[in-house]
Amino acid sequence: MPGPAEVLGPILELMTWVGFIPGIPLLIAGWMLARRRCPWTVTTAEVVEAGGFKGFRWSDGDNTSHLSLLTAEETKGLETGSEVALHYDVCHPGRWSLGPHRDDNTVMTIGWILTATGLVCTLAGFVLLMF
Q: How far is 125 from 30, CA to CA, in rounded Å?
């Protein structure tokens, strides 16, 4: 009957390769995606009303004026003439939100998980060789 070292050795070796082979390219791809992503910044927007719609009038970093109209249901609780903090994409000012933007780089997250799994399995394999 094989001992724990004979059973764990091939499993750790397999998990090392399963972690490193896709993990490192995913880390590189995630890093490239993060470098190409445009930054978001915050500005002050004024709540305006136009016809049956409410919206936001705001200026970006180049002093270009923007107007974003929404339906009345989407702007409940906002008073016309009040000011709100508006977060927008510097490269694409049409992409905006009222809350802070959260960068989620799923490719990099999966790459970190797989690479860490490969590293832990490699270290566990070396520890297993000592016993």
A: 28
Judge whether 69 and 49 are in contact, CB under 8 Å.
no
| Cα 6 from chain centroid (whole Å) | 41
Q: Which range has highest mean pLDDT (50-54, 97-101, 115-119)?
A: 115-119
Q: What does the pLDDT look like over 41-94, one tens digit per residue?
A: 888 899 888 877 888 898 887 888 888 888 767 777 788 888 888 888 888 888
The Cα–Cα gap between 105 and 108 comes to 6
Tokens of 19: 């972690």
Residue of 6, 89, 79 whose CA lies nearest to 42: 89
Pairwise CA distance, residues 14 & 121, whole Å: 9
Question: Alpha carbon of 52 to those of 71, 80, 98, 104: distances in Å?
Answer: 8, 12, 21, 35
Give the contacts of 100 (CB within 8 A, at least 6 positions apart): 40, 42, 87
Q: What is the pTM of this model?
A: 0.66
